[in-house]
Design a protein that fits this description.
There is one protein chain. Helices cover 7% and strands 49% of the residues. It has 180 residues and is mainly beta. Strands 3, 4, 6, 7, 9, 11 and 13 form a seven-stranded parallel sheet that branches. Strand 1 and strand 2 (10-12) form a beta hairpin. It starts with a strand and ends with a strand.
Length: 180
């Protein structure tokens, strides 16, 4: 469930981490605000922040290593998607902090695509975040600008999967056509 920090009222509830998390993002995306996740949240598809629906400053936060997004195999954890290269055309800013993004506990044959995928966005801060077992990239930053990484730890994004023989071909942090 999602409790409104200002009123104490349950604004959203359900059995799906995606449904509740995305509902919070959608509700705050025009005005901005902070969403705090606690415990382990299963994500069967990515949480998506999109240009056109987002004009306020949005923060997605947790309580450090105790706040984990358990991401389905071959899926992204968080996608931040804009319409124009390098985020031209809008005032928006996203902060992601104090979270762990990882695959299911059975690591053999279980890896995520990207922990965080940022495309065509201006202004993203990623702070105190750990990402594990991404086959493509822990953080993929594509055609974006003013992205700040502070105390980010990425592990298991290349080499061989834990306990198996499947090669992981990803990069820890991949800057693809980005600037600043």
């Amino acid at each position: 469930y999602a409790e409104n920090g200002a009123t104490g009222v349950i604004d959203f509830s359900g059995t799906s981490g995606n449904q509740v998390g995305q509902s919070c993002i959608n509700a705050l995306s025009t005005t901005g605000g902070k969403i705090v996740f606690a415990g382990s949240i299963n994500l069967v598809e990515p949480l998506i922040i999109q240009n056109g629906t987002s004009s306020g400053r949005l923060e997605i936060s947790g309580f450090g290593s105790s706040s984990q997004f358990i991401i389905s195999q071959n899926s992204d954890g968080i996608r931040i998607l804009g319409n124009q290269a390098f985020g031209y055309g809008g005032p928006y800013h996203v902060t992601i902090k104090d979270l762990v993004l990882t695959s299911t506990t059975s690591r053999v044959g279980r890896f995520i695509n990207n922990g965080i995928y940022i495309k065509n966005w201006f202004g993203v801060d990623i702070k105190d975040v750990m990402i594990f077992n991404a086959n493509n990239s822990g953080i993929l930053i594509e055609d974006s600008a003013d992205v700040q990484l502070d105390n980010v730890y990425v592990e298991g994004c290349s080499g061989t999967e834990y306990g198996g023989s499947e090669p992981l071909t990803g990069a820890g942090i991949w800057l693809k056509g980005s600037k600043d």
